[in-house]
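Hi Y.,

Following your request, here is the sequence exactly as I used it, all 141 residues.
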Amino acid sequence: MALRFVLSSLAAILLPIGAAATDFQISDADALAIANAAFGVTSPDASKLPGFGVDRDSGTNPYYPRFIFYQATWAGNPDGTGSAVVGFVAVDRKTGDAWLAVMCQEIVASDLQKLQRSVRRRMGMSGNQYAALKRPGPECE
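Below is the corresponding structure, written out as tokens. Let me know if you'd prefer a different format.
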């Protein structure tokens, strides 16, 4: 009888935690802030380029619906040579993890991680919930 009570009590505590873990969703503003910070890591001088900007790709990538994709661009060379594309970043909608969108590489830096932890904390996500939600990025599967 005591064991049954302990098990039912544990289930009552743990089931809501597991259920709530799937409900987390990064806001558009937080995802953009994370993408900007990620570009600051991968291309630290790019923000100084004329016309630099970060834009969300329209729509959802059907192969990676869990991620929001961003593209950084700049005005380009005045003579029209070269590429105006700085790079691509994918932000996980549930965890805020940032990945290079064209290869399996997570973007990791202390300032970026501080921002990501702050976003997760505001959403009420615990470290255990984050660990349970963490997944490989695009191009990793």
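The first strand starts at residue 53 and ends at 56.

Thanks again,
Q.
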